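#struct-queue
[09:14] JT: dropping the first one here, sequence first, then the structure tokens:
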Amino acid sequence: MKIEGNTFVITGGLGGIGSEVASGIVENGGKVALFDVLDEKIGNEKALSYGQGKAIYQKVDVSNSNDVKVAVENVVEKLGNLKGAVHLAAISIKRDYTNDLADSIEDFQKMWKINTLGTFIVDAQVADAINKPLNHPNGSNEKADFWTTDEERGVIINFGSAAAHGLYSRTLCYGPLKLAVNGISRTLSDFLGPSGIRVNTISPSIVMTAMNAKLGDYFQDDLTSHAAFPRVPVPASEIFKAVKFLIESTWVNGEDIRVDGGWRLVVDRPKGGVDARSLAPGLE
């Protein structure tokens, strides 16, 4: 799939990674639709910064299927040639640790709604928009018979996390829900394969964005101890390289690409020592 001449939805498009991905797509000749929850004035200014006619902003709650559907329809109308999505939108709710597991139930529900359900909704609405001319010929509401193609028609990239690969207590809610994102991607790669749409996942380690900026020292210590190389947070600019690779690599489908410097999540619990969770109060 070429970037040039094509349009891609970017959820979380006003964030640190989203901005890098949007810039990279525009610099490679594509157009972007930025989906986020921030004020429309802020979003419209950001979209305009990419150049006239190259980007639009849509204020969208990714957990609301109808909101996403309407926003995607606007993208098709205003930018045209929709070919896929880079789904970055996610939240991480942080709290102090206690020994009461039920303290996390409400947080789990909130993160599931955005991080996991939101992934399925965005993927479904974008894929259906790409397939609409063939699924509903002549704009009718009637569904066409099942069809297949050998043409590459779209690409969706969801964002998992290194936390999905090393499930432990410090990622009590976030990790399992990102693991579910990997499962959604793998399943949808099979479902959408006949219609020529690829689905993959990128799982970064630590990218220093607003979501975890206050834990920079803690994460750096962990990377120094448990990553292979490089043992530092991933620059957001490096994430776009993985996005570009997955957009352009036709034979990569149903895969999860780890961009983590070989970081392996480990909990050190020395006998008689301090539980590592207490070193990062508020991590989750």
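[09:21] JT: and here's the second one, same format:
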Amino acid sequence: MAAMTRSFTGIPTLDLSWADDSARRPQLLAQLRHALVDVGFLYISHHGVPDDVVTGLVHELPSLFALPSQEKERIALHNSAQFLGYSAAGTETTAGQPDRREQIEFATEHPEDSWTPDQPAYERLRGPNQWPDAETVPGLRPAVEAYLDALTALGERFVGLVAEALFLPADALLGFLSDQHRLKLVHYPGVVDAKADGAGGSRQGVGPHKDSSGWWTFLLQASPPPIGGLQALNRAGEWINVPAVPGTFVVNIGQAFEVVTHGVCPATTHRVLSSADERFSVPFFQGVRRNLTKTEALGALQDHFQKTFPGRFLGSNGESAEGRQIDSPFLRGRYETWGESQLRTKVRSHRDVGAQFYGDVFDKYIHDEDT
């Protein structure tokens, strides 16, 4: 396979119903292979997630983010050792600028006592969600749990297709997955003072980044067109719009998958620009096994990708200069396991949570760049 292709100018759409058609399945796998290797972003349609599961969750979003501030504070992320809960707009920064979005993070539910003191600190990331009072948004919990279940099943099915598209056995990638997946419900308020070009961060819903918290991301753009703002960075350094398309999910590669494929399947840099219209989105982050080590991630499939994709091996994908600036905390960091790399990132991003719940590792993670 050639080492370079023309930079993508649009995002491909794959019809997953073709997987059940023996005549069309090879064409679907070829389309998927192109999306994996040359783009890093794709839409999937006819994905099998029931319409009522999607609409049930979308219906809850306006009332959820309209909750009074005291109710949002009751479920604030700083109350959770699992970094789950509500974060206000401007409390997170990306590329050095504050993100104009508020969000509530949920995950696969685990009991409070999932972690024991003899386990690594990153095992504390498993635990219970924080839920608003059921009287204020009574449909939220069943809607979130149904959506998590449906996306977990879709993710496993999709990973099987990915394996086949990359000439691997269908179950070759399942062993990398975690027992915990994460879901964000995100609200981008309308921005009336946004500059046209986004300069100075005034339109930054979320700044340029690659998804570092999961294997794959499945994004529901929950506001109808023409409301948009999501953009992906192509190999030439051009921002390509990823508009909302009803009935689809946007799927993109996370950094862990880029590591395991040795750059054959690159994670694509993306961002969200805010506009005068408020926007809702729901990203589902497919979890990576916490005890996955760098040695295992790099070695498990190295021979396969080196032999099968020699022109793409070790990331010779022509990524733009801006994209290369995005760090890979797992591969380039000093910690050996995926779980510890993730915990470090969360502690450094939410230092109040780190200081309260992770005092045993807090100083190490905050000051490890100084040693």
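[09:30] RK: nice, looked through the second one.
[09:31] RK: The longest helix spans residues 140-165.
[09:31] JT: good to know. Confidence is low (pLDDT under 50) at residues 1-5, 196-201, 320-326.
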